[in-house]
Inverse folding.
């Protein structure tokens, strides 16, 4: 009888151990592989990058009188610069409309006309955080804005808030707590200056990505299948080179 009880206890332990180690789904492991580097001459700060299917576009921030919207080819070669007089925080490309949009230091979303080299307000007062660097969903339907630890999901066409949800463990430091990036499956926010946290589109934590470089807080972006950060020019009115790094995830 004692042998049977010992056997039963041992079998129960093995069952519980196997269930504990094998029964739970393992977290998705994401790695960042450097794929592209773009030298980006700006005044003040490199804040955002996007892609329209053939060209990259970057925007800088820090001063309305020194705002450059730079255009590059698919290999990262410089094509043209546009002076648009906005203190930029994010540049977004909506593939449905084939248009570029800029979020400035403020609460408005601007439409950019490259042929006329002009900007105009598209949606006024839709953002809560003046300093936020929001993201657009790849399908062009939604805008994600990070406000403290809360993600606001906005309908792109109207700017109406659809829902909000909280994030856990994000990096609560000035500028780093104002940027969010989005792919078709994930949301990305800073976990540290060289670390990005990955969430589902509903805000469930998935994993983290350690990066080989420290990125400027507002620069966190996602486009052309890559996660992007910038080594900031921090160049004031003299201008200088910052560097964008794209990572395959």
């Amino acid at each position: 009888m004692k042998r049977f009880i010992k056997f039963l206890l041992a079998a129960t332990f093995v069952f519980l151990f196997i269930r504990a180690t094998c029964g739970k789904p393992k977290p998705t492991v994401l790695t960042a592989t450097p794929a592209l580097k773009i030298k980006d001459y700006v005044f003040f700060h490199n804040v955002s990058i996007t892609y329209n299917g053939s060209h990259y576009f970057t925007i800088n921030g820090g001063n309305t009188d020194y705002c450059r919207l730079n255009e590059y080819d698919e290999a990262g070669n410089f094509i043209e610069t546009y002076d648009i007089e906005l203190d930029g925080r994010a540049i977004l490309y909506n593939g449905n409309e084939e248009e570029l949009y800029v979020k400035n230091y403020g609460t408005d979303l601007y439409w950019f006309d490259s042929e006329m080299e002009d900007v105009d307000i598209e949606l006024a007062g839709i953002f809560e955080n003046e300093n936020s660097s929001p993201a657009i969903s790849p399908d062009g339907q939604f805008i994600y804005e990070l406000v403290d630890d809360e993600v606001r999901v906005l309908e792109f066409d109207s700017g109406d808030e659809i829902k909000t949800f909280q994030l856990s463990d994000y990096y609560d430091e000035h500028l780093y707590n104002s940027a969010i990036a989005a792919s078709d499956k994930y949301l990305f926010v800073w976990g540290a200056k060289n670390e990005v946290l990955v969430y589902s589109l509903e805000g469930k934590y998935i994993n983290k990505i350690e990066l080989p470089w420290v990125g400027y807080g507002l620069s966190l972006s996602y486009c052309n299948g890559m996660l992007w950060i910038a080594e900031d020019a921090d160049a004031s009115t003299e201008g200088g080179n910052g560097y964008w790094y794209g990572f395959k995830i």
